[in-house]
Design a protein that fits this description.
Layout: H1 5-8, E1 10-11, H2 21-24, E2 29-30, E3 34-38, H3 45-58, E4 63-67, H4 72-81, H5 87-91, E5 95-99, H6 114-120, E6 129-133, H7 135-141, H8 143-151, H9 154-168, E7 174-179, H10 186-195, E8 198-207, E9 210-220, E10 230-236, E11 240-247
Parallel strand pairs: 3-7, 3-8, 4-5, 4-6, 6-7
Antiparallel strand pairs: 1-2, 8-9, 9-10, 10-11
Length: about 250
């Protein structure tokens, strides 16, 4: 079956038989876009990022996934617990997984300058989609960003980083950034919110024995079909992300 013009502008998240996430996003994420996924700790940002990565590779797209939290063994265990088996994608090089450890020191005894390495890397940005989970940790702890901020200010430092992501996203590459806003200065985060083509806010509300999670779509430039403005979801062991209901405005 041939694809429609709007489908060719999107990276389908696949798994139509498994959940309704791709349909809730109007058929996928726009190519050549910067996506900001924002939410406090525990709202499901990493699960959503993992679901997106798995769905993309199942659609034969190539993904780079950088995590500041989990080495590859922990990532594989987490994905397996959600029935997102990415082992084949890693072996076939459809998924390039990188662990950016910000807790230690480099060979010179200095904190790792991950941001500098990211912007100078070529391999990192050769895939169709790059996921940085969590990018907020880099803004908090990477000395490279602090140096940029000292040279100008935090807002202008953020704009310099944004300019790099914009260059990466030219053409059809898409960049996905997950951020925990707590502890980040407004002048650091606001420029990223302002330029994001897709802005998703994740929230969680306690409710008795369970919690209610939702994805609120604050902006979605370049959508295919109708995008839901709010997507309630749960995370189930052995199943993964499950869309509970969708609200369209």
């Amino acid at each position: 079956m041939s694809s429609t013009p709007w489908q060719r502008r999107l990276y389908s998240l696949g798994l139509a038989h498994h959940d309704q996430l791709n349909r809730a996003f109007g058929g996928g994420l726009p190519k050549g876009s910067v996506v900001l996924v924002e939410g406090p700790y525990g709202t499901g940002k990493s699960t959503l990022a993992g679901r997106i990565a798995y769905g993309l590779t199942e659609q034969s797209h190539e993904v780079t996934y950088l995590s500041t939290e989990r080495p590859v063994s922990a990532f594989l265990d987490q994905m397996q617990s959600l029935s997102y088996d990415v082992t084949g994608a890693i072996l076939d090089r459809r998924l390039l997984y990188l662990f950016g450890d910000l807790s230690g020191f480099d060979s010179d005894g200095e904190p790792p300058q991950l941001l500098s390495r990211l912007t100078s890397s070529r391999r990192m940005w050769e895939m169709d989609v790059a996921i940085l989970d969590t990018f907020g940790d880099i803004l908090r702890y990477d000395p490279t960003f602090d140096v940029l901020a000292e040279q100008t200010d935090r807002r202008r430092a953020a704009q310099q980083v944004i300019s790099f992501f914009r260059r990466v996203a030219r053409g059809e590459r898409t960049v996905i950034l997950t951020v925990d806003p707590s502890g980040l200065a407004a002048e650091t985060l606001e420029p990223f919110r302002a330029i994001a083509d897709v802005l998703l806010e994740l929230t969680v509300t306690p409710g008795g024995r369970s919690v209610r999670r939702s994805i609120d779509v604050r902006r979605f430039v370049g959508m295919g079909q109708q995008v839901d403005d709010s997507i309630a979801f749960s995370i189930r062991p052995g199943i993964g992300l499950v869309v509970e209901n969708r609200r369209v405005v």
